[in-house]
Design a protein that fits this description.
It is a single chain. The radius of gyration is 23 Å and the shape is elongated. The protein folds into two domains: 167 residues, no CATH class; 163 residues, no CATH class. The protein has ten helices and twelve strands. α3 packs across α7. The strands form three sheets. A seven-stranded antiparallel sheet has the order 1-8-9-10-11-7-4, with helices on one face. A three-stranded antiparallel sheet has the order 3-2-12, with no helix packed on it. It has a two-stranded antiparallel sheet with strand order 5-6. By secondary structure, it is an alpha+beta fold. About 12% of the residues have low confidence.
Length: 355
């Protein structure tokens, strides 16, 4: 089900237009957006007055009824003490009315009796397949949606949030994109010299080529970019001329870059890159998982990653066998897993395929 949009529309759709008259109680207003793609996922909303806060805090709500009125955005830290939970919601989350959602779809595991109990974690995604929050709507619960701040940004003028919610800052995103497109290395931790950064990027391409997620032209394009920046060591020159070589030979050359590095960063970068392929609808989640399964046989890949890939493979097998889960739910689990690494996308080198 897609909220606030036509079910027949594809995931890469235009955002629902929102006017100044949409859900406009008196007071400063905010709009929640997906943190990854920036698409609006709610109407414009106002903060509650003290009566709404006290109603929730004193548990004077009805099962099966909305926890907060339509048009309201509630910072849950107004009602919870530290380390407390409220039907799965916890501090550093935002509560909204289910009817205020736009540009979102159902996903994940959605168990329940007469609705969705939210006990299985995130079950709502934006229409571009990024996880955004959890619906709680079963018959024995108040009805609401809770949105963790790591999945969202908030735009607007609402005041009084105790939770520190990242504001949507288009200028910052443009600056970061410009740095990325120019091949800036500034996103790596301090202490990483140029040689180590290039070594990490080479290992990323080696793993990605092994998994079939990039091609030889992508590697050649990266080598050309290094040469333009003055990094013209022999192995870079060899890679820039590798378009006619076998993939195994290109992989070998990528392993010959000077320096040492653990595979933790290259693997995280590969998982982030895989997430971008899924969210940009260039690959289906099952295709990505099949490609990443090649990492299990690669030396020095963290055991935790191998374990996670094995678990997702088991889910996929059960889905194909119609046991306990479905292919749709398994796809959402794959996207959720990859989304944990989305922040490392800024480290992935700008790929400029050679013609």
């Amino acid at each position: 089900m897609i909220h606030g949009a036509d079910n027949t529309q594809k995931a890469k759709m235009e955002m629902v237009p929102l006017t100044d008259d949409d859900n406009n109680p008196t007071g400063p207003r905010s709009q929640v957006r997906c943190r990854v793609c920036g698409i609006p996922i709610t109407h414009w909303l106002c903060e509650p007055d003290i009566r709404v806060i006290n109603k929730v805090k004193n548990e004077k709500y009805e099962d099966g009824e909305p926890l907060v009125p339509q048009g309201i955005i509630l910072d849950i830290t107004h009602i919870l003490e530290k380390n407390e939970y409220f039907w799965g919601a916890q501090n550093s989350e935002i509560i909204v009315n289910l009817n205020d959602l736009v540009n979102t779809r159902d996903g994940g595991v959605r168990h329940g009796c007469c609705g969705v109990d939210g006990s299985d974690g995130i079950n709502l995604f934006c229409v571009n397949n990024h996880p955004i929050g959890t619906e709680v709507s079963d018959c024995y619960q108040p009805e609401f949606v809770h949105l963790p701040v790591e999945c969202i940004v908030v735009e607007g003028r609402a005041v009084g949030f105790k939770t520190i919610v990242p504001r949507d800052n288009q200028r910052d995103r443009q600056v970061q994109k410009k740095k990325h497109d120019e091949g800036s290395y500034s996103q790596f931790p301090d202490g990483f010299n140029t040689e180590k950064r290039i070594k990490i990027e080479a290992e990323f391409f080696r793993l990605a080529l092994t998994c079939g997620l990039v091609g030889k032209k992508d590697v050649v394009g990266w080598a050309d970019t290094l040469i333009e920046k003055g990094n013209d060591i022999n192995v870079v020159l060899d890679l820039s001329l590798a378009a006619g070589k076998l993939p195994g030979e290109v992989t070998r050359l990528l392993g010959e870059f000077p320096g040492q590095c653990e595979l933790a960063y290259p693997v995280k970068m590969l998982l982030a890159y895989s997430h971008s392929l899924v969210t940009n609808t260039m690959k289906r989640p099952e295709e990505i998982l099949l490609a990443l399964s090649d990492l299990v046989a690669v030396d020095r890949v963290p055991e935790s990653v191998k374990h996670d890939i094995g678990w997702l493979e088991e889910l996929r097998y059960m889905a194909q066998s119609d046991e306990f889960t479905t292919t749709y739910e398994t796809g959402d689990e794959i996207v959720l897993y990859l989304a944990k690494y989305a922040k490392y996308r800024r480290l992935v080198p700008h790929v400029r395929a050679s013609s």
